[in-house]
Amino acid sequence: MSAETIAIGAAAAACAMACAVFILAPAWTSYGRLWERVAASFLTLFILATLLGIGVVVGLAIVWAFATNS
């Protein structure tokens, strides 16, 4: 395994942990019934998808800006 693969894996693990701690845990503890907790946990996937989409767009914008200025 290369250092790049390890770095990407570590970053993915850190992002998954941050999502679980900062988004999933508060959503889970906000409700009392099991079905409400499961529904809130499912809805956090939309938050995760939105954050990933924003990250991809910002990353592509940075690459595009770098490529056009080089």
Summarize the structure.
The chain is mostly helical.
What does this structure look like?
- Helix content is 90%, strand content 0%.
- It is an all-alpha fold and 70 residues long.
What percent of residues adopt helix (DSSP H or I)?
A: over 70%
Total beta strand runs: 0
* First-last Cα distance: 31 Å
- Beta-strand portion reads under 5%
- Unreliable stretches (pLDDT < 50, length at least 5) are none
Order of helices and strands: HH
Mean pLDDT: 92
- Number of distinct helices: 2
* Radius of gyration, in angstroms, nearest whole number: 17 Å
Shape designation = elongated
Structural class: mainly alpha
Give a quick account of the main beta sheet: strands, pairing sense, barrel closure. none
Entry keywords:
mainly alpha; about 90% helix
